[in-house]
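User: Just a sanity check before I run the rest of the batch. Below are the structure tokens for the first item. I only need the designed sequence back.
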């Protein structure tokens, strides 16, 4: 079963917040695995566990309102293009993870 992550925009609004959040979500061995967007993208390219990032309209709106969060979303999108284990799904309303 895939790891399902409902992306929390308030956790990706700064480089420091994103670094902490992604390290909580993934067990990256390298200390600087998420220290910046390039490092995040590189780290996600090595993820082997099937992982689905879930976005809702509310989440997308909050991400688009913050420049850094938007850049994180782009990095996730690039990672999903490069790594078949990563995907992004859209959902109409926020629900609890199943």
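Assistant: Here's the designed sequence for the first item:
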């Amino acid at each position: 079963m895939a790891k399902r992550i409902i992306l929390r925009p308030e956790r990706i609004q700064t480089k420091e917040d994103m670094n902490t959040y992604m390290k909580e979500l993934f067990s990256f061995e390298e200390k600087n695995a998420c220290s910046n967007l390039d490092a995040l993208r590189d780290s996600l390219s090595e993820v082997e566990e099937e992982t689905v990032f879930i976005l809702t309209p509310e989440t997308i709106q909050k991400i688009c309102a913050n420049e850094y969060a938007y850049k994180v979303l782009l990095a996730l999108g690039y990672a999903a293009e490069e790594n078949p284990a990563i995907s992004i799904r859209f959902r109409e309303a926020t629900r609890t993870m199943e």
